[in-house]
Specification:
mainly alpha; 82% helix; globular
């Protein structure tokens, strides 16, 4: 059965994953790889960026499948939604503690991460 809230969560997750891959590749990974940061640190961060890409894409596909009614997996939606909420919380904490409130728009990832998780949980309610 179609669940518009979970489907919306999946669409927003897919958009977020796409932005991460395209914009993050240009604005984060290219400068990282061109930087003078220690080789091991640089490659570890680069690998982490790819790990996040995989997590975002797979979780978007999971939300889309459940939202479209192709899979009945409320526990999966709860898990993925909790991850996205926690991902968003990490960005908020880092921003507020390190960058201070002026950093809220310098690290705006939380703006996309939190709604995905909230929509997914709301769709379960």
């Amino acid at each position: 059965m179609l669940n518009y809230l979970i489907l919306s969560s999946g669409v927003l997750a897919a958009v977020t994953a796409t932005v991460h891959i395209i914009v993050g590749g240009k604005e984060v990974t290219r400068p990282l790889l061109a930087s003078a940061v220690d080789y091991v640190v640089k490659l570890t961060m680069y690998a982490c960026w790819h790990l996040v890409s995989v997590a975002l894409v797979l979780s978007a596909l999971a939300l889309l499948a459940v939202g479209a009614g192709l899979v009945n997996a409320p526990a999966l939606v709860a898990f993925v939604s909790a991850l996205w909420i926690l991902f968003g919380a990490v960005f908020l904490v880092v921003t507020l503690v390190v960058a201070q409130p002026r950093g809220l728009l310098r690290l705006p990832q939380w703006v996309l991460l939190l709604p995905v998780g909230v929509l997914g949980l709301w769709g379960l309610a």
